[in-house]
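User: quick one - fold this with calcium ion bound?
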Amino acid sequence: MKQIKIILLAILLSLSLTGCSKNKEEKIEIIDDNYRNVYEIFVASFKDSDGDRIGDLNGVTEELDYIQDMGYTAIWFMPIHPSPSYHKYDVTDYYDIDSSFGTLEDFDKLITEAHKRDIHIILDLVVNHTSSSHPWFVDAKKAYLSGQHSDYVDWYNFSTSAKSGFTKISEGKYYEARFVDSMPDLNLDNEEVRNEIRNIMQFWIERGVDGFRLDATTSYYTGDNAANTEFLKWINDTAKELKEDCYIVGEAWTDDNTITGYYDSGVDSFFHFSMSQSEGTIVKTLKVSAPSSNFKNALQKALSITKGHIPAIFLDNHDVNRIAGGIGRSQRERIKFAYGLAGMFNGCVYTYYGTEIGMVGSGKDENKRIAMLWDSEDESTLCKNPSGATSADYVYEGVKQQQADADSILNYHKAINRLRNKYPQIARGEMNFLTAQTSQYVLSVEKSWEDTTILIVINFNEEESESVDLSELEYKSMEYVSAYNEEATFKDGELILPAYTIAVLSK
Ligand code: CA
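Assistant: Sure. Structure tokens for the protein plus calcium ion:
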């Protein structure tokens, strides 16, 4: 008996080892375009490399293997330039790295190592405003107040009358600052300012940057969408002159109609706010009585809004409540499945750091930007939280623990990213909805790209398996990702999907 047990154990061991090595050998070729799985990082809270407990660029470089292993193919960095604030959205020097994050040499090393792993680098480009401590503004304000000449006065929008969105300096003297006093708006009509923005983009493109995320685009010319679109076109054209395939994604925190208009600028992507967060279209799919048709409409809408450009799908980011809290902290399968649904959209899917392990954070911005939980059993791996954070609790375990758990949120995210990387049709394909294989709880959609077609079948039923008859179709092989980690089968044309399961079939 003991001998049989040992033999059985040996067989099991060899089986699991085979499975393991098979996964490791799987080499997925990353398509060299801008349809990517993007990972958003707030550097200060991500990974510290030098013991001061402030995350830094070398810390990110240390974790590039993790980022690659998770299937992310691009990183969007929140601002990394010198800045007096913790969040760094008020820049004092666009040509350098904040000293707490490292040096330009660290950045060069990071980008070289990222590119070795087929990971693109996207930088936040904050040009609606600078810091009030930026030498340009310091000089401009001093000259404006004293009546002396400075070229920089025309770089900002000073006024002798009080207006909405303007900050008072002294009697009869104001400057435009749409967000806070410490962020004076730049005068984007000034050719010198535009030339400077061009130089900034060129500087980072020459260092290897693949794209930019444009901060606060609706505030460029507050209340004037035509002027915003014109300026967006100028930025996009300029970026593409400098680098033909430079990827531009804009933050326009507004309604779908306005975003559709902004795509006339030629900008590659705008974030789809209406799809995001716990009240958005994706999570709504988990609550409605007709999830299949709701999700079909969402897939179509993402493409109609973008007019041939690249949808930018996300569930949460640094400005909104983290999605795990919005869905419900204990709703582990719903939290997973929401990402699975986001991952089935055409375009780019964005993941805010920590969302892949179900981190929570709401209320004050600082609470949404707390330390990445690398190892729930080792507090020394935590960065310092932003000083204003009032809550920093973790519902789920850290990266290390979740990596070892096949059923974790992390491994679910990884499996979805793998599908997106393995089947380029998911992000790029032309859609064909199959009505005969679709029902209240099941959606079947083909996606075709470069003469190849795959079939995605989704079971939205939270509790029950669904059977789908595919016998009339030519699909031969099937892969799936199940939120409950249950088994799907495909035999003699019958596909049986457990609750909350996504399958991809190929011919
Ligand atoms: Ca550090």
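One thing worth noting: Residues 48-50, 52, 54, 56 surround calcium ion (CB under 6 Å).
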